[in-house]
Every structure is written in C-alpha cells, then in structure tokens.
C-alpha cells in the first residue's frame, strides 16, 4: 500500500521532512539526547564523524566509535517531539521512499536515550545514572496509537492505574525497556520505573506561582511499590520512546542522569559532570 505524500512528507532533496535525513544517514545504533547542544558532547568521543546535519531542534551527527557506526540525534523536549523523531527514524530505515511502500524486510534499531531526570526516592542520590526498567506515561500520546501489552506490562499497568485512580482525566500507559539493552548497556546501572510527564512544572509537582491541581504529586508517585518495582524518577520523554519503539519494532533504553532530588528539594551543582558520566557509560558499553 502506497503511503500518501501528506502522511510521509519528503523534502525536495529526498530527505525526511523534520529530521532532514536520508536513509543512508542513520546508523543501526542511535543515541537520542534532548538538548541540541548535547549532540556535540556525545560525538566528541567518536573516533570519526561522517557528517553533521540539522534542522530546527533536530541536530544529527553520524560517525564511528571504534568499528561501530553510531548516530546521535537531538529530539527536543517532550513526547510530542518523540512522536516526530521515532516515526521519521522508522520511516528512514523501513520505508522505500521511491515507491512509498513499507519494505518487506524490516530493520530494528537500537535506540538509547541519554537524558536528565529528577529522583523521587530519597535513596536515589544526585549523580546516579539510572536505567528505566519501564516508562510510565502521564501524557496523551498513546491515546492515538494501538498498543499491544505483554501480560507483565498489563498486570503492572493495572496496579498503577489503581494507585493513580484519584487522578482524573489522566490515562497512563506503560511499556517495558528492551530487555536486550537493559541487560547490556543498563547492566550495571540502578533501575526503576520512570514517569514521563507532559510538562516541567505542575505536571512534575513543581510550584512557582500557579497553583497545582494535584497536591503532593511527588508523594503520590514515590509511594507506589509492586514487588521489586517502584517509581524512581521523573522526566519528559521515556514513556513515549518505549511505547513507540515497541510499536515500531525497535529496541529502546532510557539512561537517566539524575540531577535533582525532588524529595530533598536539591539540584546538583555539577550537572554537566553527571551528564558526561552518563554519556561515557553508554559509549563504553556499545
């Protein structure tokens, strides 16, 4: 079935609309970062860089770490941008742009997010590098996609829905990390459920001037526990990454540099050092 021009938009040079990339520009291993300025902080460790491209907030460098070809790409903030990045990454490797049809043989990318986050548990200190075992989305992205949950995901999501039953008009969704990447890249990292919020302030329990509709949001999320599963941290992309990766057949892992303790009301004095640590840990484990 041919994909409509209005559904899959290509630029005049044949590159995909937002990312401005051609199919040959994407490596099988992709590191995503939120901040466009962080792309260079990753690629400075590459042994060689084949090219650099950019459009809007989407900056891409592709090169080699040893003999492994790696792409690092900035997504910007939030799951709305993740929707763009993951659909376009998938199209770049799994759609024939000439015929506008899905390829017979599909490719599965290894996608690793390296991002910042705040801890919601008192025993997760600033400076921790944490791998998300699950992404729990409090945003609306998955209202628009069909998900197929595993029995474990369905069971844990049911418990989470009961825990958050007082939160009206929120339909949480849950997806597990790639077990392959969690057991390799994330092997020596702390692990926990990561909550993905649709904003930075009230949706993450912060209050500056506007009054919060959900009092004690941090206490609500950090009180959940099911067996070995507990919510450890908050950010704005992981759940969308995990859900879309699974829907599209890719492997995904979110690696979180913990810069803040939300329970101790503290923020790191050395955020760049913590992010650097996370970048090096990921690159050394590729």
TrEMBL record:
In terms of SUPFAM superfamilies, this protein maps to: Purine and uridine phosphorylases
Source species, please? Pedobacter changchengzhani
Report the GO terms under cellular component. Answer: cytosol
Q: Which Pfam families match?
A: PNP_UDP_1
The alphabetized list of GO BP terms reads: uridine catabolic process
Q: What is this protein called?
A: Phosphorylase
Q: Which Gene3D superfamilies match?
A: Nucleoside phosphorylase domain
Q: Name one GO molecular function term.
A: uridine phosphorylase activity
Domain Nucleoside phosphorylase, residue spans: 30-280
Among InterPro entries, the record links this protein to:
Nucleoside_phosphorylase_d (IPR000845), Nucleoside_phosphorylase_sf (IPR035994)
């Amino acid at each position: 079935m041919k994909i409509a021009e209005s559904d899959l938009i290509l630029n005049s040079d044949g590159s995909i609309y937002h990312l401005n990339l051609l199919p040959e520009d994407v490596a099988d291993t992709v590191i995503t970062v939120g901040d466009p300025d962080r792309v260079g902080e990753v690629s400075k460790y590459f042994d060689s860089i084949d090219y650099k491209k950019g459009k809007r907030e989407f900056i891409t460098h592709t090169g080699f770490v040893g003999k492994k070809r790696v792409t690092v790409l900035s997504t910007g903030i939030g799951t709305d941008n993740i929707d763009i990045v993951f659909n376009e990454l998938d199209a770049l490797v799994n759609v024939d742009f000439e015929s506008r049809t899905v390829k017979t043989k599909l490719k599965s990318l290894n996608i690793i997010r390296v991002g910042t986050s705040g801890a919601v548990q008192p025993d997760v200190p600033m400076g921790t590098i944490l791998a998300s075992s699950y992404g729990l989305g409090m945003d609306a992205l998955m209202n628009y996609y069909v998900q197929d949950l595993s029995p474990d995901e369905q069971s844990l999501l049911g418990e989470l829905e009961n825990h958050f039953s007082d939160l009206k008009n929120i339909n949480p969704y849950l997806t597990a990390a790639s077990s392959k990447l969690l057991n390799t890249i994330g092997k020596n990292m702390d692990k926990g459920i990561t909550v993905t919020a649709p904003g930075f302030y009230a949706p993450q329990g912060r209050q500056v001037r506007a009054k919060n509709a959900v009092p004690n949001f941090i206490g609500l999320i950090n009180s959940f526990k099911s067996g070995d599963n507990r919510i450890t941290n908050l950010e704005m992309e992981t759940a969308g990454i995990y859900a879309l990766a699974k829907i599209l057949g890719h492997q995904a892992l979110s690696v979180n540099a913990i810069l803040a303790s939300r329970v101790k009301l503290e923020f790191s004095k050395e955020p760049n050092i913590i992010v650097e640590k996370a970048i090096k840990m990921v690159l050394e484990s590729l």
